[in-house]
Write a structure and sequence with these properties.
Elements: E1 3-9, H1 17-31, E2 38-45, E3 50-56, H2 60-65, H3 67-80, E4 92-99, E5 115-117, E6 120-128, H4 131-137, H5 149-163, H6 166-176, E7 179-187, E8 193-197, E9 203-206, E10 212-216, H7 219-226, E11 236-237, E12 242-246, E13 254-258, E14 264-266
Amino acid sequence: MCGIFGMAISSRSAIEKSDFKKTLSNLFLLSESRGKESAGVHFYLPKSRRAITLKGAVPASTFLKSEMFLNSLEEVLRLTFVPGSPLPNQPLIVIAHSRLVTNGRAEEPKNNQPVRSGEVTVVHNGIVVNVDTLWNQHPELTRTAEVDTEIIASILSDQMRSSFDPVSATRKVFEEIKGSASIAWTHSGSSLLCLASNTGDLCFSELEENSGLVFASEPYILKEAIASSRSNPAIQSVIPGTGVLIDPGHEKSWVSFSFREQQFESNSAVVVGDAPIHQT
């Protein structure tokens, strides 16, 4: 059991810098209960295509106090929020992880999450039981770590490189893996965040006016993390066998999709079948 969590905010978001910092800190601390052997985060600014990935073989509470995290967070906040204003001036995606080791030693940095392959960065909760078989079936992919999350990142990266279709890339992963997986991933050539699960161990809550979302592995963690800034937040589960795409750089909001072909659902701000994806 691991914890995956994060946020996506748009430049239209009404979330203030102080609330953003508090919510992110709460997510880390509450998710530590799901794994204390390592922690990590990926900050991604889609507008400027800037990204910072940090991870360490320490509990989330220790990770939050580290100089590398504090300095990186301040740099991200400086770039995201308008000088002299508490509100953001560009989109920001954050995906993060608290790890309970299932395979891959935490002392080896490349086994900790987030995991990157090509332009894809992913966090994963679960266990892929056919990971060795998948590497053997995909000689075109290169294995560099023991952790099973790398095969997910590699398949996503390969699929995005060939088709640049996040829905079909996600479907391909869940078509091939055996085991349990709840994932959140980004691509450095787009402004998307994708959430997906075959177990339902993933939930999210929208920010006001379709200006982003916050997600976590458990409803309790999510509710408590955002309680200081929002009362009685509506929490939605990622239904097993589905995913959610959000593009905080786009005026539209989010679209959900089934792992089966041609099955989409959307909120009122999204045209069905019109996934809000930007390619550069």
